[in-house]
Amino acid sequence: MMPENRFVNHDRPNIIFCILCLVFCILSIMGCKRQAEEEKKLVSPDAVVISVNDKAISYGEFQDIFKRNFWEGNVAAELKEEELRELNRALVNQLIEEELMLKEAAKLVLIVNEKEVSAEMEQIKKEYVGDSFESTILNKYGSMEKWREEIKRKLLMKKVVDEVITPKLSVKEEEARRYYKEHESEYNVSEQVRARMIVVKTEEEANHVRERLLKGEDFAKVAKEVSLSPEGRKGGDLGFFGRGEMPTEFEEVVFVLPKGELSEVIKTVYGYHIFRVEEKREARSKSFKEVRNEIIEKLKREKSDMEFQAWMKELKQKARIEVREELL
């Protein structure tokens, strides 16, 4: 008769059962998640995902706005899942706030006329080059009429802010002076120079250009004629700049070069350069008078943000808002 095996594991069936239960739970969770994702894909474009009082925003509308704002240039495609969710939340909040502002516009009987819309459209057109304007707008909005309606909405919201928030914004002289004293170091200006530059491809050409300048030819005129840099069209004028704003090779020359003198030919990765310093400014601190308007505008912007947030919080508390996050 065989001796009893003292090492037989009588708990083994229980362990196997627990493992099977765990596997079942994991598969169930994955199945539910997959089901939720499939359901999300099958959401009707007409399904309401955001409601603000009596205004409903459908799933289709939300997706169109999302693509218009975040898919341009493939921005959203490069984001992680959590970052996309954050964009979703930000857009939900933006749309809620826009609807609340438009409702306030109606209460205040504010309107935007066609002349204002047309003027804004013309202003935006100036930002585009060549024939890119119409194709960009049609690609983004689908039609010129939709773009026009969007501009009208934005102008109307701006009018609401101007009506409700702007009158509350005022900055007293003592506030501006106090800010200046507390942030005086921010208005320190480092040493600056204003220089002109000519850049050409070869050292031989650069030496020839320098000879012309030494004989008295006008630097700006020669720059327009031969310089390869974009500044050549402006006579080679680089404007004023401080240390750290230009390539090191430039700064090592212009900050030691006396005003009005020509540099030697300088070789860089960009080509062969000749510089002439037009003006120099010593390091200094800007006076309150110089920065007064800048400070007042900055403080107004800060107050505007605070007033807007407080106003919007009040509107949200009074509104009926519902968001179906599971569909977004």
Protein architecture, described:
This protein is of the alpha+beta class and 328 residues long. The protein has two domains: 32-107 and 165-187 and 284-328, Triger factor/SurA peptide-binding fold (Orthogonal Bundle), CATH 1.10.4030; 191-282, Chitinase A, domain 3 (Roll), CATH 3.10.50.40. Helices cover 55% and strands 14% of the residues. A hairpin with a 2-residue loop joins strand 1 (48-52) and strand 2. Helix 3 (81-107) crosses helix 6 (144-164), helix 4 (114-125) packs across helix 6 and helix 7 crosses helix 11 (288-318). The longest helix has 31 residues, at 288-318. The termini are far apart.
Biggest sheet overview: 4 strands, antiparallel
Strand content: 5-15%
General form: elongated
CATH class of the largest domain: Mainly Alpha
Average pLDDT confidence is 88
Q: How does CATH name the architecture of the largest domain?
A: Orthogonal Bundle
* CATH-assigned fold name of the largest domain: Triger factor/SurA peptide-binding fold
> What is the straight-line distance between the termini?
70 Å
- Topology order in helix (H) and strand (E) letters: HEEHHHHHHEEHHEHEEEHE
User: Low-confidence runs (pLDDT<50, min 5 residues)?
Assistant: 1-10
User: What structural class should be given to the helix and strand makeup?
Assistant: alpha+beta
Number of helices: 11
Assembly form of the protein? single chain
Q: Tally the beta strands.
A: 9
Q: Helix fraction?
A: 55-70%
| Rg over CA atoms | 33 Å
Domain count:
2
The strand order across the widest sheet is 5-4-7-6
